[in-house]
Design a protein that fits this description.
heterodimer, A: 328 residues, alpha/beta, TIM Barrel, 2 domains, eight-stranded parallel barrel, three-stranded antiparallel beta sheet, 15 strands, B: 238 residues, alpha+beta, Nonspecific Lipid-transfer Protein, Chain A, five-stranded mixed beta sheet, 5 strands, 57% helix, globular, SCP2 domain-containing protein (chain B), SCP2_sterol-bd_dom (chain B)
Chain lengths: 328, 238
C-alpha cells in the first residue's frame, strides 16, 4: 500500500529543517511578501532562503512547494508573476496557486512546473476541479476544509488528479479564498494581503482576571481566568446575541484527523497537510514527528496510535472538523 | 565559533531535564546579579552578549537591525530583573531591576512579553512553541502584537540558540564550569535522589522544605509585585 505523502509547513529556514528532520515528505513555504496567505511580520523566505531550503530538502529526498496563493491585485500582477518565475528558477518541486490568471501564466510560461491548486481556490466539486485540470494541467488539488469524508470519496471517484487534505492545525471553517471577515474589521484579508487578523490590528488586554483579544478595536473574545486563549479571528469570536456571549460560527479549536487515516485512505486521498506556517519550529517538529509515527504505524497495518498533541492546539480542544460533521 | 564543550546541551532524558532546570535556576540567579554591577557595567556586559549572539546568528540580528526602532520588555515574573530589548538600527539590551529604578524605562516599552523565566528562556532558545504557551495562558503579551510576532519569528528562524552557554562564555570562570556542569549535573542529581530515598521521611521532608525556600529566594519571587514591574504599559492589568 502506498503511504500518504506528509506535507508540512515552514515559516522560517529553521522550521523547514525541523520539518525535514522530523519526517516530512514535502515542505510548503512562502516568499516574504503578500503573494502568500501567511504574510506575517518576520515570517517567510527570501529568494536565497528558498535556494538554501531546496538544497537542504533535496539532499534528504524531501520536496519543496512554494505557496503563491493570494489573489493578484488589479493592475499589479508583477509580484505574483515574479514569484512564479523565481520559484521555477529555484527548482522547487511545485507551486501552490489559487488565481486562474496566475495558473494560466504559470502553465504557459513554465510548462514543466508542477501546479497544485491551493485551498484558497476553494474547489469543492467535480466540475471545478476538472476545469483546473483541463485548462492549466493542475496535478493536485488541496481540498477546502468543508467536505465530509464520504464527499471526498465521491469526489475522488470522479476526478483523475491527486487530492490533498488538511489533517492538523488551525481550522478555517469558511470557504477559503472567499472569506472577507478579516476585511470588515481591518481592511485586510488573507485573499489579497495574505493576512487573516493581521498582527498590527491585534491587541491583547488584561481586564481584571480576564484576557480580552481585540481586532481593529473590536473585542473578539474575553477569556476567563484559567480558560484557554485563542487568536482573535472573527470566525472564532464570542459574540453577544440573544441570551449572552456565545461562539456563533466556530469555537477556538484545532483540527486533528489522525484517527481518520483509514477512512481518508479508503476515500482515495493522496497527501495529508499539516497547517501552521506561522507556528514555531518546536510545534512543527512535534507535530510532524507525531504524524510520521502515525503514518508508519498505519502503513505497517497496525492500529493508528493515539499521540497526544493537545498541548499544541488553539483552544486546547481538537476536532475532526467537517470530515465527520453531520450538519451543514 | 562556539566552544563545543560549552555548547554541549543537556539531554532530553529525565536526568537531562532536571539538569536543565538546575541550569535555568542558576542562569536566573545570574541575571539577578547583572543590575548590581551598576548601569554602565551591566550595559557593557549585555552589549558584549549581543555582539556574541550577532556573530553566531547573523541572519537574525541583521533582521532585528532592519526592524523599525522599538522597545520590547521581556519580563520574567519570577526573576528580580526584566530585559528591555531595543530593536532597529540601535539594537541594544538593558537589564531593568524591579522597583522604581526600572519603572520609567519599562513604561516606555512598545510591547511586553511576560511569563515564567524558564518558559521565556525555552522560548528564546526555540525549544518551545510560543503560541502553545500563549494558548495555555503561561505567556502573556501586551502592546504592539506585530512587534512581538516579528521578534519571535526572527529568533525562531534560527536553529536552536544556546543562550545559557553564550551568557556563560562572557562570564569568565562560568565558561569553564558550564561544560563540566552539563556533563555531570544529571548523573549527580540522580545520585542525590537515590541517596535521598534512603533517608528517614522527616529528614526528607525537611530537605524538601529547605529546597522550596531556596527556590523562592533564587527566583526572586519574594517581594515581586503581583503584576510584575511597576509602571508597565496601560492595559496590562497590573
Amino acid at each position: 500500500m502506498d503511504n500518504f505523502e506528509l506535507i508540512c509547513p515552514a515559516g522560517t529556514p529553521a522550521a523547514l529543517r525541523a520539518a525535514v528532520d522530523a519526517g516530512a515528505d514535502a515542505v510548503y513555504l512562502g516568499f516574504r511578501d503578500e503573494t502568500n496567505a501567511r504574510n506575517f511580520p518576520g515570517l517567510n523566505f527570501t529568494r536565497q532562503d528558498v535556494a538554501d531550503a531546496v538544497d537542504y530538502a533535496h539532499a534528504r529526498r524531501v520536496e519543496v512547494y512554494v505557496a503563491i496563493n493570494t489573489y493578484p491585485q488589479a493592475g499589479n500582477l508583477g509580484p505574483w508573476r515574479k514569484a512564479v518565475d523565481d520559484a521555477a528558477r529555484l527548482k522547487v518541486d511545485a507551486v501552490i496557486l489559487a488565481d486562474p490568471g496566475l495558473l494560466d501564466y504559470a502553465a504557459k510560461r513554465h510548462p514543466d512546473l508542477r501546479l497544485h491548486l491551493s485551498v484558497q481556490a476553494s474547489a469543492a466539486n467535480v466540475e471545478a476541479i476538472r476545469l483546473y485540470r483541463e485548462a492549466f494541467g493542475v496535478r493536485r488539488v488541496v481540498l477546502p476544509r468543508v467536505l465530509t469524508v464520504p464527499e471526498i470519496a465521491r469526489l475522488n471517484a470522479e476526478i483523475d488528479i491527486e487530492t490533498e487534505v488538511f489533517v492538523f492545525g488551525g481550522l478555517c471553517p469558511m470557504a477559503e479564498g472567499r472569506c472577507s471577515l478579516s476585511s470588515y474589521a481591518t481592511g485586510l484579508s488573507p485573499n489579497k494581503q495574505g493576512v487573516c487578523s493581521p498582527a498590527n490590528h491585534v491587541r491583547y488586554e488584561q481586564r481584571g482576571g480576564s484576557l480580552a483579544s481585540t481586532l481593529g478595536g473590536f473585542t473578539i473574545n474575553v477569556f476567563g481566568e484559567g480558560e484557554q486563549a485563542g487568536y482573535p479571528t472573527l470566525c472564532k469570536g464570542r459574540f453577544v446575541a440573544g441570551d449572552g456571549p456565545a461562539y456563533l460560527f466556530e469555537e477556538p479549536t484545532s483540527l486533528n484527523a489522525m484517527d481518520l487515516l483509514p477512512e481518508l485512505k479508503a476515500a482515495g486521498v493522496r497527501a495529508l497537510k499539516i497547517e501552521g506556517r506561522q507556528r514555531g519550529k518546536a510545534y512543527i517538529a512535534a507535530v510532524v514527528r507525531a504524524y510520521r509515527e502515525a503514518l508508519e504505524t498505519f502503513a505497517a497495518g497496525r492500529p493508528v496510535p493515539h499521540i497526544d498533541l493537545q498541548a499544541m492546539v488553539e483552544g486546547g480542544t481538537q476536532t475532526t472538523g467537517a470530515y465527520t460533521r453531520a450538519w451543514r | 565559533m562556539r566552544d563545543p564543550d560549552v555548547a554541549q546541551t543537556v539531554s532530553n532524558s529525565p536526568a537531562g531535564e532536571r539538569a536543565r532546570r538546575f541550569e535555568t535556576g542558576l542562569s536566573r540567579a545570574g541575571l539577578g546579579l547583572v543590575p548590581r554591577l551598576g548601569r554602565r557595567a551591566s550595559d557593557a556586559l549585555l552589549a558584549r552578549l549581543l555582539r556574541l549572539l550577532a556573530d553566531r546568528h547573523p541572519r537574525a540580528f541583521e533582521a532585528l537591525r532592519e526592524m523599525p526602532d522599538a522597545r520590547v520588555l521581556i519580563e520574567p515574573v519570577d526573576a528580580p530583573v526584566a530585559l528591555l530589548m531595543r530593536v532597529g538600527p540601535e539594537l541594544s539590551l538593558h537589564a531593568l531591576p524591579r522597583g522604581a529604578d526600572g519603572a520609567g524605562e519599562a513604561a516606555a516599552a512598545d510591547a511586553v512579553v511576560r511569563g515564567p523565566y524558564d518558559r521565556l528562556l525555552d522560548l528564546l532558545e526555540g525549544r518551545i512553541d510560543g503560541d502553545a504557551l500563549f494558548f495555555r495562558r503561561e505567556l502573556s503579551i501586551s502592546g504592539d502584537t506585530a512587534l512581538i510576532l516579528a521578534l519571535r519569528n526572527t529568533l525562531d528562524g534560527e536553529d536552536e540558540m544556546d543562550l545559557v552557554a553564550d551568557a556563560a562564555s562572557i562570564a569568565g570562570p562560568l565558561a569553564r564550569a558550564l561544560p563540566v556542569l552539563r556533563r555531570n549535573a544529571g548523573p549527580v542529581l540522580d545520585r542525590i535522589d537515590a541517596a535521598r530515598r534512603l533517608l528517614p521521611p522527616p529528614l526528607r521532608r525537611g530537605i524538601e522544605r529547605l529546597e522550596a525556600r531556596l527556590e523562592a529566594r533564587l527566583g526572586g519571587t519574594a517581594g515581586t509585585p503581583p503584576g510584575g514591574l511597576p509602571g508597565k504599559l496601560p492595559g496590562t492589568g497590573a
